[in-house]
């Protein structure tokens, strides 16, 4: 495999696009803005799903499935919600095709027009709250803690594989509670679940905070989020958890009889992460040789490559490596033996580096004679000769170390690129180089908008901070209760 | 819980509908023909997915994801395919809504009309083969063995929860092969995977066979299927596996360079099962008390119900049952302790019977004094007093026995209701009472159609039969190579 991707330092954006394609993760489809998630990319999504699904169930949630289509009138029921989504909707207007009168292909059958148009769900609050109306009558029916794994469609103008696509896969949790307090706790609980997942599985350090009112989800009273730093210093929002107050309960008239027998509107939350996480994973850790995957999300954790000349040597070496494969598999490690005979081992090395396999084990006749193998780790590209005896324990430890090292590296990078700045002039200069900027802001949407227009930086979040430091807005000099995080973002 | 479902013997169809709703499996949504799969129903689907997904991977398949939308022109590329699906398509024509000029709600923005309409996938052969075109260049790229878990939409006129819905969840395998032989073997392999799954997990005996040409998938050269008998004697097609020949490869011009360096069209298969399987599960095994679930697919396998008066007794009995719960969970059994204090135990018994939990364990003060529990099995409704010592092993054996018994019962029922008939007059009378009929047919679509019109019975399949018996068509008297299965079907 020739070196086929652009250098990260040359053109970060092109590096990312090249990498997604060359590592066989995804590709653009014939449908504008929709991607094909290829088997290797989908295997990462399956790992993400598996880990998150367990975390959701461990926190008391169950899965369900709601319709793909939303009647147009439902969207309008919550004023801010429709404002937020109406402009990027795929609209189904007909339910039948017919043979074209000119005999060429098919056309929409005009007699099969729907009475009410259907929207392909951009998110499911409206259809779900219309359903919850029938499920919730009494405080005994609460809480309702449902999650859905689904596809959604948002007609984005500019799309990029994984980061922003017309159709994407995600999970959306939708919960219903008897009290404001409970719903707020749930909102917090789930953003923390996302943060733990990012840290423990994706090896990705994230900041937790609230969005400003202008960056909130359409229909939310508060949006909590996790924000991660990519290697170009830009921010990526990796997950959101919304406190929706009683907005959707009011819009769909969902009331319950409280313990005291009073009718009250239900409190709600929603929260989601999507295939965008795969984009985050790539952008946070990978290098000019390709993907770097944290072992816990790598579809393949170890690849075995026999080094040989001729078929006799191949079978000798393969026989030498076979027990290693078995020993690793017995420990639950995912292993592949790459014994292809139509490509050279240099090609194989490059290919598995491109695909981000955390550990490569190679052996040739000399290793076999010595009872050793060559172990290469993907994160640092270091190689070491290791005795075969005890190789399974060695690899287990190495995978743990790699997982920790990838996190540590990302953490150090973020710390190095997080700046406390008080002067707007300084901010305007330094934002060009990327990074997170801790600055004072006067809390008004006008100042937020001005900064965005002048610098392309947005407030990523108002960090959840136990001991906030008061100060003065870097633009207007008006009082600020705490520093917020500014960055340019994906 | 009052007895709330219609008797199966009175009105089978209403019994089914009642059951789906009362057992909390699914309900109709606000969108015509689309269902909401409720958490309990979705939990069954997750079990089905888990088991099938493993079987697919064990036979060398990988998962991927392809776009929800199909450009209209793609559908037309395979002539039979478009004929089969054009009349039941959800068509996306616009990508934006706007505020209604009258200020009330939103309307479709006429300026946001798509150049080419998009079809919400009714099945994905076309979009996938358009993608495979770029993946397959050489024999070394073959086989391609992809599966996709997805939602699909078919605008059915008459819908029924799980059995036939506008949107449904399914998996669709799409494979590409270098030779006709290999593709035919794959078609056979996957229908056998489905048959094993039905037998081993769903406790459902099925017949394997080929569809007649008029019942084939639109675009297939051969459709293999599994057919199951429901308790009203009607047939339900539970899964299909299609040999597509080179039809889609030709339609999308997918050729590969063979080992010999010649350009050849690729051979293909597709195969799928859907949430319809949940309908089959319900219809095949359940009774007038509710669901009967095979233990291997039951979201809850054991429910513990303390029998008590007053809070003191409750805590005593709960304490008595707690170790049983732990012992069962330690063996990997899914257990729920139902210690609700707002409903009586009779209500609980009825509720868990309705939900088809295979084993119920109840205990009151007298059981506690004796060191026993009352174990009730859902399939036979038998109860037995069992010593607490060794209860975990007892329950494990009982679950195995229940799984086997449910299968056995369904098998006996099918055998009892499968008839060999040679006279068309006799056939016309007896088909009214349901059942599978093994009859001779002359192999013509005309005779098949005549029988369908006169009796509403269709040929469910031409069974895969090692030693076919030749005979004469029951309608025309013309020669027949083997008996085929006739039945009325869902």
How does this model look, in words?
2 copies of one chain form a homodimer. By secondary structure, chain A is an alpha+beta fold. Chain A has 3 domains: 274 residues, BirA Bifunctional Protein, domain 2 (2-Layer Sandwich); 97 residues, Anticodon-binding domain (Rossmann fold), CATH 3.40.50; 70 residues, 2-Layer Sandwich (Translation Initiation Factor IF3), CATH 3.30.110. Chain A has 14 helices and 27 strands. In chain A, the strands form 7 sheets. Chain A has an 11-stranded mixed sheet, with helices on both faces. In chain A, strands 18-17-19-20-21 form a 5-stranded mixed sheet, with helices on both faces. A 3-stranded antiparallel sheet of chain A has the order 4-8-5. In chain A, helix 2 crosses helix 6. The model of chain A has no long low-confidence stretch (mean pLDDT 96). Chains A and B meet through strand 2, helix 2, strand 3, strand 4 and helix 3 of A and strand 2, helix 2, strand 3, strand 4 and helix 3 of B.
C-alpha Rg of chain A (nearest Å): 26 Å
How far from one another are the termini of chain A?
30 Å
Q: What count of structural domains of chain A?
A: 3
Q: What's the CATH architecture of the largest domain in chain A?
A: 2-Layer Sandwich
Q: Largest sheet of chain A, order of strands side by side? A: 3-9-10-16-13-12-11-24-27-23-22
Q: Mean pLDDT of chain A, as a whole number?
A: 96
> CATH superfamily membership of the largest domain in chain A, which one?
Bira Bifunctional Protein, Domain 2
- Looking at the structure, the CATH topology of the largest domain in chain A is BirA Bifunctional Protein, domain 2
Query: What is the largest interface, and how many residues per chain?
Result: A-B, 64 and 64 residues
Structural class of chain A: alpha+beta
The protein's oligomeric status is homodimer
Number of helical stretches of at least 4 residues of chain A? 14
Shape of chain A: globular
Helix content of chain A: 25-40%
Which stretches of chain A are poorly predicted, pLDDT < 50 over at least 5 residues? none
The CATH class label of the largest domain in chain A is Alpha Beta
User: In percent terms, what proportion of residues of chain A is strand?
Assistant: 25-35%
Count of strand segments of chain A: 27
**Biggest β-sheet strands, sense, barrel of chain A:** 11 strands, mixed
């Amino acid at each position: 495999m020739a070196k086929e991707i652009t250098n990260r330092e040359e053109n970060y954006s092109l590096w990312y696009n090249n990498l997604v394609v060359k590592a066989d993760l995804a590709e653009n489809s014939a449908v504008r803005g929709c991607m094909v998630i290829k088997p290797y990319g989908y295997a990462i999504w399956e790992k993400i799903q598996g880990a998150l699904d367990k975390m959701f169930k461990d926190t008391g949630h169950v899965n369900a499935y709601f319709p793909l289509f939303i009647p147009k009138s439902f969207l309008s029921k919550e004023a801010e919600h429709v404002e937020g989504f109406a402009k990027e909707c795929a609209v189904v207007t007909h339910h039948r095709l017919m043979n074209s009168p000119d005999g060429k292909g098919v056309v929409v059958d005009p007699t099969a027009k729907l009475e009410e148009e259907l929207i392909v769900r951009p998110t499911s609050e409206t259809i779900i709250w219309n359903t919850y109306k029938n499920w919730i009558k009494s405080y005994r029916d609460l809480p309702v803690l449902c999650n859905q794994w689904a596809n959604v469609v948002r007609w984005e103008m500019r799309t990029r594989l994984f980061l922003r696509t017309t159709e994407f896969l995600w999970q959306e949790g939708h919960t219903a509670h008897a009290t404001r307090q409970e719903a707020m706790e749930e909102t917090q609980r789930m953003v923390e679940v996302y943060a733990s997942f990012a840290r423990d599985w994706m090896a990705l350090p994230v900041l937790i905070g609230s969005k400003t009112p202008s960056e909130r989800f359409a229909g939310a009273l508060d949006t909590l989020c996790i924000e991660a730093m990519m290697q170009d210093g830009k921010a990526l929002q990796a997950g959101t958890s919304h406190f929706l107050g009683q907005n959707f309960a009011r819009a769909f008239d969902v009331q319950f009889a409280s313990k005291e027998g009073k009718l009250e509107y239900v409190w709600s939350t929603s929260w989601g992460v999507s295939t965008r996480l795969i984009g985050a994973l790539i952008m946070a850790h990978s290098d000019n040789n390709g993907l770097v995957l944290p072992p816990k999300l790598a579809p393949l954790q170890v690849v075995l490559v026999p080094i040989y000349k001729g078929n006799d040597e191949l079978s000798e070496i393969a026989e030498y490596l076979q027990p290693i494969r078995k020993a690793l598999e017995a420990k639950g490690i995912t292993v592949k033996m790459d014994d292809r005979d139509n490509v050279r081992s240099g090609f194989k090395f490059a290919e598995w580096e491109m695909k981000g396999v955390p550990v490569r084990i190679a052996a040739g006749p000399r290793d076999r004679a010595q009872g050793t193998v060559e172990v290469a780790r993907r994160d640092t590209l270091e190689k070491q000769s290791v005795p075969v005896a005890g190789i399974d324990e060695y690899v287990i430890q190495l995978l743990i170390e790699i997982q920790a090292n990838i996190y540590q590296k990302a953490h150090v990078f973020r710390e190095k690129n997080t700046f406390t700045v008080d002067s707007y002039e300084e901010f305007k200069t330094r934002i060009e180089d990327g990074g997170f900027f801790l600055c004072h802001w006067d809390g008004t949407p006008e100042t937020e908008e001005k900064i965005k227009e002048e610098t392309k930086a947005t407030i990523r979040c108002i960090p959840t901070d136990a001991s906030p430091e008061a100060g003065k807005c870097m633009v207007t000099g008006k009082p600020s209760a705490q520093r917020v995080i500014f960055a340019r973002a994906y």
